[in-house]
Design goal:
Strand order of the largest sheet: 1-7-6-5
Number of helices: 7
Strand content: 15-25%
Number of strands: 7
Shape: globular
Distance between the termini: 35 Å
Order of helices and strands: HEEHEEHHEHEEHH
Largest sheet: 4 strands, mixed
Radius of gyration: 15 Å
Length: 144
């Protein structure tokens, strides 16, 4: 059984909810990532911030990324998976919620992230194709 802990990218870092989006963008550049989990004051996952969130949800709206916090961008219920979970559970979680990145938690602490690249390195072509079809499936009217 392959686990989430075996396929994840280790060393994931979060951004505190009180941190500004310009700092989040700098951290994304430093880490060469497109998403950061957002941690609340109790070091609990409260969302995920993507580079797209910064551009579309802040900059394109005419807001100043030096004044908007990561916590203000956190919406919905954050999804995560335990490090010991089977890769089938990882795929199911990502499919069911149509997400492309999944934080991995162990003993209530962030230990890694699973992205499309991690899946591509560890799954068969058929598994990847099935996952991609379900995650990228058009869910309703309008452009994607």
């Amino acid at each position: 059984m392959t686990t989430a802990g075996e396929i994840m990218h280790r060393g994931a870092r979060w951004i505190p909810a009180h941190e500004t989006l310009d700092r989040a963008a700098q951290l994304m550049r430093e880490l060469n990532v497109g998403a950061l989990p957002i941690g609340d004051d109790n070091d609990r996952l409260c969302g995920i911030l993507t580079d797209r969130d910064i551009v579309v949800g802040c900059v394109a709206m005419g807001r100043d990324p030096a004044r908007v916090t990561a916590g203000e961008m956190a919406r919905g219920t954050p999804r995560w998976i335990d490090a010991s979970a089977d890769v089938g559970d990882v795929l199911g979680e990502m499919r069911n919620h149509q997400i492309r990145r999944l934080p991995v938690i162990e003993n209530k602490r962030l230990v890694g992230m699973i992205s499309e690249a991690d899946l591509a390195r560890h799954l068969s072509e058929g598994e990847i194709a099935s996952w991609a079809e379900s995650v990228y499936a058009r869910t309703g009217p309008g452009p994607h």
